[in-house]
Amino acid sequence: MNILFDYVLFHFRQVYHLPADLEISYGLNGQSRLQIIPTTSSFFERQQAQPVQVFWKEWQGTNMPLFFNEATYQPWFTQNAQGQVIVPYDIIASAFYLLSGWQEYYGKDRDQFGRFPFKASYQARHRFITKPLVNYYFDILREAVEVAYGQKIEAKLWAGKPFATCLTYDVDYCQTAWKVAGKPALQKGNIKLFLQLYLKHLKGQDAWFNLPQVEQELQALNAKGTFFFLPEKALYQGHPNADYDVASPKIQAEIKRLKSAGHEIALHGGHGSGNKARQLRQEQEKIGQPVQGNRFHYLRFDPVKSLEVLEEAGLQYDSSLGFPERFGFRNSYCHPFRLFDFKNRRLSSVWELPLNLMDITLNHPNYLQLKPEEVMPALTPMLQEIEKFHGVFTLLWHNENFTPYALPQGLELFREITQYVQKRGTHFLKAQEAVQFHS
Fold it and tell me: Where is the DUF7033 domain positioned along the sequence (predicted)?
C-alpha cells in the first residue's frame, strides 16, 4: 500500500505549497500530524478492474465517490486532543485508482482501435467525466493539512495566473482538402467549390496546407502552440495516417519556421506505434528535430503497452489520455501527472498532459453531435473546474478545422473557446512548458 501512498503524495506535492516538514502517515501511527486510515479492502491484491460498490459523501456541495469505504456518517476528518488530524476515509486509494488508470490496465474492454472505451469506464457509469475527482480528494487533504498545521495552504499558480491552457494541433492532413471536401461538393453539384479547391491543390496551396493561418490565430492570442506532426504516411490495416511526407522539403520548411517562431514541435505517433517501440523511435527520427512529447494518432494509447514504448523512446511526456467520445477528465485530474508503471509498480519517468477536449468530439457522428451554439454552454462547467483547481486545459484542434471544409464553424468555435479562457486570465503554455512548470 505504500506504493499507492507514494504515488498520490508525489502529485499532491506538485499542486500545493506545503510545509517543508509535512507529516502524513498512511495508517494510524500516533505521531504524524495527519494520519489517514487505509482501507481493509483486498481490491488491489485481486487486480480487479472496478470496485464492487461506491459510497457517496458530500464535500463542500459536491457529491464525492469513495470506492474502498463502507457507508458511514463520520466527518471527513477530526482533530484529537494532541492536535493530530485523523482522516477515516481512504481517499489515497480512491485517488490512486483514478489517477493511475487502474481500470484501464486491468479492464478487458477495448474498441476497434485497441482503446479503452468511455462506455466501459467508471466515469461513464457514475457520470463524473467532467469532475476532476482527484483534485477534490486533494482539496480534502489540503484542508486537513491546514487544520493540522494551523496555517493556510495555497495552490501553486501559473506565473501568477489562475490556470494554464495548452493549445495543441495534430497535423494529420495537409494535401487532401480538394479530395475530402471537394469531391462531395462536386457530387452535390457545387462545381465551383470543387474547382476552387482543386486549383489551389494544383498550385501547391491545398486548403489544408494552412499552418500559417493557425499561427496567426496563436499570434492574436499572444500564445505559442504545440504542433504534433505525423511521420507515418502508409495506410495501417485500412486506416489513414498522414496525407503528406514529413521529410519533404515543404513540410520540413514549415517545421523549421514554426520552431524558429517559438512554437513546439512534437511527435504524432502513427497507427500501431502505441505498442511498437521500434516504430515510434523510427517515426521520431523522421521529424528531423528533437522532440520531447507525443500524442498517438486516433488517441491510440494502449493501457498495457504504451508506457513502456514511450519510455524506450526516451520521450518526456505524452498527451493522448482523453476520451475521444467525451470531453473531460479521463484520469479524473486536471494537472499534468506521471504515468504509473504497473509492470514494475513504480512512478514512471513519463509525464501525461491530460487531453480535455478534441475538436472532433464535438460533432463526430459517433460522438456528441453538438450544434455550434451548444458547445460553450456544454464546455463551461468543465472549464470552471479547471480554473477552480488551478489546473491545465489542453485543447486539440486539427489544422483542417480552421477551414470551412471540415468541422462546421470550426474557426469560430476555436475563437470562442480560446477567447473565453483568455478573458478568464489563463496562462498560455506550450505542452512541454506545462509539464515542466511544477515538476
Answer: 87-174
